[in-house]
Amino acid sequence: MSFNSLYQYSWNALEPLLREGFNVSIVEISLGFSLFTIFSSGFQPLGGNFADEIGPRKVALLSSILSALGFLGTSFSPSVYIFFIFWSLGSIGEGILYGIASNLAVKWFKKRMAFATGLVSLGFGLGSAFADPFILMSGNFRLVTLIIGLTELIILPILSLLIEYPTLESGKSPKEAVLSRTFWLIYLSFVTATVPLLVISSSLSIIGKALPFQELSILISIFPILSGSGRPIFGHIADKLGVIKTTVIVDTIIVLGGASLLFSQIIPAVVIIGLAGGAVITLYFNVSGIVFGTRYSTVNNGILYTGKAVAGFLGSVIFNYLFLISPFLAYLFVIISSTIGAVTLYGIFHHAQPAEGSSQVRRGL
Predict the structure, then answer these.
(1) Most exposed: 24, 51, 71, 307, by fewest CB within 10 Å?
(2) Is 5-362 a domain of CATH 1.10.150.320?
(3) Beta bridge partner(s), residue 171
(4) Is 284 exposed, middle or buried (0-12, 13-18, 19+ CB in 10 A)?
């Protein structure tokens, strides 16, 4: 999970180096982040289906090689277009590995599902927090991506051989899940609630361009830590208060973070969206696991995770386009998106509560 974070939370550190190295504009290089979200999330259902059917080891092994190839290929890319190809291949591996890692917690730790998933996902922030200062100091993307790629090529395949899923699980099949109205309401809520997180992940260097360089560098470095640390914190709360209720509360907090951007409070916005936004993805995985069961959670959550591709496009390309027209308009877009996420999930809260109650009985809570 720590290596997975480098594709998303190290983008703010890599983006200026890539833009300068390939001599392209902000809008052009932002396509790289959009491709990451599309391929990372788009291939999760496919990888998740194989992992649920044949087990996670072989799937994770192949995905590990792809993830490493993304960084190795970036290091040797002669043009931005070749970079896009390798970054997309690496994003496929990253996405499948993310799904397997998070669903290991969903499947194995049912009594403390939200906390366990959040704790595993803490690595999604810590990896970038460690790497970003070195990336920022490197001054060149080629050496640092080569080092990351070689490290992944050695470590990730070894870890892949040590994992397995439990047996004797129950839950709705992907077909049953996607044919339900509840799934698509959860999907809509997930997409819109994650837009602020992906805005900060992809565009913090643009949003904070008026800040002193040292201050901006600190924000870029601590944002992954905030995102990662919020996951076990809100996960622990969710196990006590209820996953669905906690997710509604977190969605509401994210709206406040978007409002902070509108009033030019960049630092509070980064802190709020980092802590709450980071927790959103794992909380929605838990919501899905509660409503649809854990037997097919890797593929069901993989389908849900495709919403991140939509959110990534909205939070990078659309946000940057609006930002060039008017920062006010761009920040208003963030607030509207997050509000839709909170209101939609609140609308299905009472409908989904019985499923959470049944899940708690099965888990012995």
Answers:
(1) 24
(2) no
(3) 293
(4) buried
Q: Which residue type, as a one-letter code, is found at position 361? A: V
Task: Identify the CA nearest to 268 among candidates 343, 212, 200.
Answer: 200
pTM of model > 0.85: no
pLDDT in tens, 309-335: 899 889 988 998 899 899 999 999 999
Q: Which two tokens stand for residue 353?
A: 């509560």
* Buried/exposed 185-213: b ≥16 CB within 10 Å, e otherwise: bbbbbbbbbbbbbbbbbbbbbbbbeebee
- Say if CB 210 and CB 327 are below 8 A apart: no
pLDDT in tens, 237-271: 999 999 999 999 999 999 999 999 999 898 999 99
Q: Where are the domains of the chain?
A: 5-362
295: nearest Cα among 348, 222, 362: 362
Q: How far is CA 233 from the centre of its chain?
A: 17
Q: How far apart are CA 158 and CA 133, in angstroms?
A: 27
Residue 171 φ/ψ, nearest 5 degrees: 160, 170
